User: Fold this.
Amino acid sequence: MRGVDYNCTVWGNSDDPLLVLLHGWGDAGSSFQFVADALPDDWRIVAPDWRGFGDTRHRAEAYWFPDYLADLDVLLDLLSPRDPVHLVGHSMGANIVGLYAGVMPERVKSFVNVEGFGLSERDPAGAPDNYRRWLQQARDRPVFAEYSRFEELVPRILHRSPRMGRDKARFVARLWAQQDPDGRVRLKADPSHKLPNAVLYRRAEAEACWERVEAPVLLVVGADTQFDVARDWLAAGTAALPFPNAEVRGIDGAGHMVHFEQPEALAATIESFIRPRL
Assistant:
């Protein structure tokens, strides 16, 4: 797809209603397994691995964020060429959908945004230093930590998602990593994703896209999220939300990784929002 061999995890039958789940940075589509298990079995769920994550092919050059929008556009044309699609995105995946739904509103039927609230505004005066930092770091290929066995990755996963439990963390470890021929366990994600973006984030541009979203939007926030903007959305209610047709719900017992810590509650939230809109 667009020159990249894309991997997708699929649940359900081809004639069931389509639901596309889009993962965040460092994750993989297959880690929505817990949510898929908790959803009714009459959905056709498709969860791609974004380029350079999971089992989707790496690129030789750097990654450019708009490529994710273009990949999503092609994917939706393949899955549903005529009808708009129900989309669920987590974190980076939600940020991608937030832009896409404003640029291509006719392709999105509804949007469940799980902890995807953009980045903080950056001062343009920092651009020279940011370009310098990017040039310096781009000289050498970044690396991720390596492990001698999958079990060593489990504490890292539990640190981010302490409520998910060790068994689920072990399952995710084998989705996020692979054992190479030398016996070392390495993350599947391309380390090049660690490079800083050469261009500063412009939040005003993202908000301009959000304002053009026509689909109904549900913002899902982990009640224990560590991000101030998410807590602000949850506290302020509908009037303060940055999407025109949006509501917000909190999920107790979850931080940022809601799909790991409270998959049943997230599945119920998705179902109650999207099912009436089929």
